[in-house]
Structures are given as C-alpha cells and as structure tokens.
TrEMBL record:
Subcellular location: Cell membrane
Similarity annotation: Belongs to the autoinducer-2 exporter (AI-2E) (TC 2.A.86) family.
Name listed for the protein in its UniProt record: Putative PurR-regulated permease PerM
The species this protein was found in: Azonexus fungiphilus
Keywords on record: Cell membrane, Membrane, Transmembrane, Transmembrane helix, Transport
Signal sequence residues: none
Source organism, top-level taxon: Bacteria
Transmembrane region(s): 12-42, 62-86, 151-177, 210-234, 241-268, 274-295, 307-336
Lineage, highest ranks first: Bacteria, Pseudomonadati, Pseudomonadota, Betaproteobacteria, Rhodocyclales
Length: 351
C-alpha cells in the first residue's frame, strides 16, 4: 500500500524528470556550440587567469570582453580573407568560362585531356559531341545550372548556420571567462559530491585530454600548412598562401589536406607541368600527409597522456558519431572510460 508521502514523492520525481527533459529539449539544438565554447574555455582558461586577468587588475568583465575580441579576430579574419580569395577565384573562373558559353567549345580538346589514363578517350569523344552541336552545349549547361544552384543554396545555408553557431560560441565563452572561477568551482564541487576523489580525477582527466587534443589539432594544422605552403611555392601552384590557409582549416578533419594538394597537382598536370605535378603529389603523400597521420596522434597522445591507439580511435569514432565536435568528445570519452576501467581492475586485483 502507498503511504501518504509516496504519491507526493512520485509527483516530485515526475516533476524533476519533466524539468530535465524540458531543459535538454531546449538546449539540444545548441549542444555542439555549447561544447565547443567549453572546449575553448578549457584550453585558454589558464592563460586568461594567470596572465590576462592580473594585468587588468582583476576586472573580469573587461578581460572577458578582450578575450572574446581576440577570438573574433582569430576566427573571423582568416575566414574573411578566404572568402575574398574564393570570390576572386570565382570571378576568374567566370571570365575563363564565359568565352566558351558565348562562342562554343573549340573543335579539338586540349592535349592533356586525351592523356588522362583510362578515361581520356571517352572525354575526347564527349568533347567532340558537345563541340559539334550548340544544342548539346546548351543542354549540358542547363543540366549543370540546377545542381550548381542547389550547391550554392546549401553552401549559403551552411555558412549562415556556421556564423550563427560561431556567434553563440562567442556569447557563451564571454560568460565562461567572466564567471570562470564559479564555473570551475561548480564543476569540481559537483564531481566531488558525485564521485569524491574519483570524480575530481575524471574532471582533471577530461581537461587534460581536451588540452592534448587541441594541442595536436592546432599544432598539426600549423605544421601541415607551413610545409604545404613550401611545396606549393616550389611547384608553382596558384595562390600558395590561400592553399596553405585552406590546408590549415581542412587538416582539422580526416582526409582534408589531400583535397588541397591533390587538386593543386591536378591543376599543374592540366597546365602541362607533368614533372611538377608528380613532385607535388609525392610531396603531399610522403611529407604533408605523413604529418597528419603520424605527428597528430603522437602530439595528442603526449599532451593527453594517452596511448596513440585510444586517441586515434576516439578522434575517428567521435567524428563519425558527433561531427566536428567529436574530435574532442571522442578522445575524452575513451580516456574517461579507460581511467574507470583501469581503476576498477586495480581495485578488483590489488596484487
């Protein structure tokens, strides 16, 4: 039988559950931005607390504002530079294509198309078919308009969403900097109440893993972009600085840099620079990609105090499950699981 207090207790539990579900539903669309803001705060908190804040006389609001302004410069200035370079490249591409649209294709394709392995002859035959008929060219252009329009709309949507997410990240980071001491005390206090010494150890492990992963990502991106820029300059690739910036950003995702140096090698091949194309392909495969495949896991593992296997599995699995933020979440989750498993095994077998 239910006592008089049990219905009241059940109602309280149901109310708490509904409140938790409601909070999760409200915050769910912003989980990625909130976690990314937390990652930025964790990685820069020591510098802010020990170097920036004392020089400002402990004025946390001013310090938080300056840190957010610095993040805006770091995140937005390269993005604006890339957008301008891409717009300029699009203008050059339009100028290059316009004569073919207005006057039609030449009767014979460039020699390098026929030299393409496996598909060269098929491409030459297709070129002859399109060049011999204005109607075929118009049909080809019409077929390309709809996919291009959809791609541009999708790219615009992604860019708009990215800007909104970035604005939210900067907004949240401001309050994390301003109230950082309170947030840190709450994290450690909650961990201490839930798990005692183990809870504090989990928080420290998560923090160390995030710092190590960030060190590996940023360090590898800087090393790859620097090495790639040298190769682009040597091979004579177009806009080597822009390609280096693109390499820096794409190095943060798996199989990103090969899209840059591979595309540059294809461009050189199309310009008749077969030797430089082969050089850049080998340079990218043996040097640029080796940094990503070898240096990144080592930097992450050393920074986080984990094995290379755990970090590699965490990064790739996290990206597949959570997207970009999974680069940080995957290793953190595996690190915490590894820590709990090791502690449990040690307690189960004291010898």
């Amino acid at each position: 039988m239910l006592t008089d207090q049990e219905p009241k207790r059940l109602a309280q539990i149901a109310l708490v559950v509904l409140l938790i579900v409601g909070c999760i539903a409200v915050l769910l669309p912003f989980v990625g931005a909130l976690l990314f803001a937390l990652v930025i705060w964790v990685c820069t908190w020591d510098i802010y607390r020990d170097r920036v804040l004392p020089r400002l006389g402990g004025r946390d609001t001013l310090g938080a504002s300056l840190m957010v302004l610095l993040l805006v410069l770091i995140l937005l200035v390269p993005t604006i530079f890339l957008a301008g370079a891409l717009a300029s490249g699009a203008d050059r591409l339009i100028d290059l294509v316009r004569p073919y649209v207005e006057q039609g294709l030449p009767a014979e394709p460039p020699d390098w198309i026929a030299a393409i392995p496996l598909f060269g002859q098929q491409l030459v035959d297709f070129w002859h078919e399109v060049a011999s008929s204005r109607e075929a060219l118009n049909t080809l252009l019409a077929q390309g308009v709809a996919p291009a329009r959809q791609f541009l709309l999708a790219a615009g949507g992604v860019a708009a969403n990215g800007l909104l997410q970035l604005a939210l990240v900067l907004f949240v980071v401001f309050f994390l900097y301003r109230d950082g001491e309170v947030v840190a005390a709450a994290l450690y206090g909650g961990a201490r109440k839930l798990g005692g010494e183990l809870g504090e150890g989990l928080v420290d492990k998560a923090r160390g893993t995030v710092l190590g992963v960030m060190l590996g990502i940023v360090g590898t991106a800087a090393a790859q972009s620097s090495v790639a820029m040298i190769g682009f300059f040597i091979a004579g690739a177009p806009a080597p600085v822009l390609l280096a910036f693109a390499t820096f950003f794409l190095s943060m995702i798996p199989v990103g840099p090969p899209l840059i140096w591979g595309g540059a090698a294809l461009w050189l091949y199309g310009q008749g620079e077969l030797g430089w194309a082969i050089f850049l392909a080998l340079y990218g495969l043996l040097i640029i990609s080796s940094i990503d495949n070898v240096v990144k896991p080592i930097l992450m593992a050393r920074g986080a105090g984990l094995s290379v296997l755990i970090v590699a599995l965490g990064v790739f699995g996290g990206v597949l499950v959570f997207g970009f933020i999974g680069i940080f979440l995957g290793p953190v989750l595996l690190a915490l699981g590894h820590m709990l498993l090791t502690r449990w095994l040690r307690e189960a077998n004291p010898s």
